[in-house]
Request: fold
Amino acid sequence: MAVSEQGLTFSPEIEARLEKAARLCSEQGTTLTPLRREVLGLVLSSDQPIGAYALLDHLRRTRAGAAPPTVYRALDFLRERGFVHKVERLNAFVGCPSAADHVGHDHGHAVQFLICTRCGRVTETEDEAIIAAVAQAAERHGFRQMRATVEIEGLCRACAG
Amino acid sequence: MAVSEQGLTFSPEIEARLEKAARLCSEQGTTLTPLRREVLGLVLSSDQPIGAYALLDHLRRTRAGAAPPTVYRALDFLRERGFVHKVERLNAFVGCPSAADHVGHDHGHAVQFLICTRCGRVTETEDEAIIAAVAQAAERHGFRQMRATVEIEGLCRACAG
DNA sequence: CTCGCTCATGTTATAAGATAACATGTCCGG
DNA sequence: CCGGACATGTTATCTTATAACATGAGCGAG
Reply:
């Protein structure tokens, strides 16, 4: 991650994802501004879920005046578009690995996280059986599902040994 | 809910559940102290998830010195034993309707909440298909699941119309 | 009986997460 | 040139949660 006059620069893979996100935004008539781009880049660069205030600390390297609303507004934008998800148990944010696939319309989807309590890493999955089971359970209760999250805590393969 | 010298008194149904909880605790060698009993009673008396600070406000009616740790410690105790669950999305707590059935060992279970964004009510379910799908997905990733929560947001039958 | 342990609670302070409310600036179309 | 939409800046505050240390009750071993 380098600092230039345009703001932060990220690894090539992440730059590619940022480009893609920028394209998706402009197709929707919105803008991935430099600020939003930086926040998304920071989230994607973290190998663990990252908290809003940790993002803020990073942001302040380039933006002296950054304050909580700065980062929360950017996160709101990114979450609305599915580029970023919040892991509720951790009050922290992760980049969506498949943001490009289901732009903006994954409501009703049951996003799933495998949260390792030892190493802190989180893997996002999209298991169809879970999605279907959740949808059916909701329907059985006469519940109109808008969105759902599944947060599974335990030990990842590496940590479980 | 009445106030007596022994602390709060709840409705007969809730008193019955408190008695049962007290019995389960003593079987485990722990104690449902008056404080814990009051907190559990307050959670069970709420028809919606209730926040820690709302509980604190109620507690202070009978316990002048109550402070955040007072309520958080009681909640920790109750959660460890499965009498109470936290709805992560709401930072609020609900009583477990089936606390008596699976005392203390429901780890690995995927607790499920149907959260109505309109009326704020939360229904807890234990859908076997979801539990199984979650367990299988975790296994497929070599993940040793300890616990899981499924939080489904949308409109309940009454609110969806 | 009394020392020392464990458990529960009290007490004070602070950390961590999130939002409200209002101000500023930029771009663009009429 | 004005006015509206949008993005960000700025200040203050609110909500949620925990750290750290103090007090006190109950109980078993010596």
In short: Residues 1-6 of chain A have pLDDT under 50 and may be disordered. Residues 31, 33, 35-36, 65-67, 69-70, 73, 91 of chain A lie near DNA strand D (CB under 10 Å from a C1'). Residues 1-99 of chain A form a domain with the Arc Repressor Mutant, subunit A fold (CATH 1.10.10.10). The longest strand of chain A covers residues 144-155.
